[in-house]
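Box S1 | Example of a co-folding query
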Amino acid sequence: MSGVPAPGAAGDQLTVGVLALQGDFEAHSAVLVRLGALVREVRVPDDLDGLDGIVIPGGESTTITLGIEREQLGDPLRAFHASGKPIFGTCAGLIMLDRDHLAIADIRAERNAFGRQVRSFEAEVDLGLDGGPIEAVFIRAPWIAEHGPGVEVLAEIEGHAVAARDGSVLVVAFHPELGDDDRVHALFLQSVRDARLAAT
Ligand code: GLN
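Box S1 (continued) | Returned holo structure for glutamine
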């Protein structure tokens, strides 16, 4: 049977990119594969071709910024967003999507907002998902200091927004790829599936 896809299988599978310039992209890939997506690591603009959505992982936003400049990925990522394809930014990925970086989400991130090293912590975050709050890992995390009127805040910690949606863009300040709770990635994949259906 090798090479013969099951009826409807290959064509229905979502292909999701993970920006792989720096940071914990492998952990994101593992979750996406677990949820049934095909995953492609993205390093250069051509890697975006044919993707249904992309994840911008956590890491170090200054290093990721340099990588995006070096590979000239800024305009292609903005075009990817303009075409309606969903983008999911986590931690440094949230920072990358804000007004001061890629300007894809109408938010302003405050870097290391909980304090530098001391404030790596776990906290319950309620995104309103079935199954209750997420036990979320924050590592030198940002929060969303400002946002435009079109942004829906999904969760707050100590009065600060740590998860939000701006149209097809989902951002969280924590690391949903750590641990075995896949619900935030499942939420993202649902938006990827919906966007693909809407485009066909
Ligand atoms: N503190 C990092 C930054 O500002 C983000 C940390 C993370 O992604 N875990 O880029």
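Helices lie at 9-12, 25-34, 61-71, 74-82, 92-97, 183-199. Residues 58-61, 91-92, 95, 111-112, 139-140 surround glutamine (CB under 6 Å).
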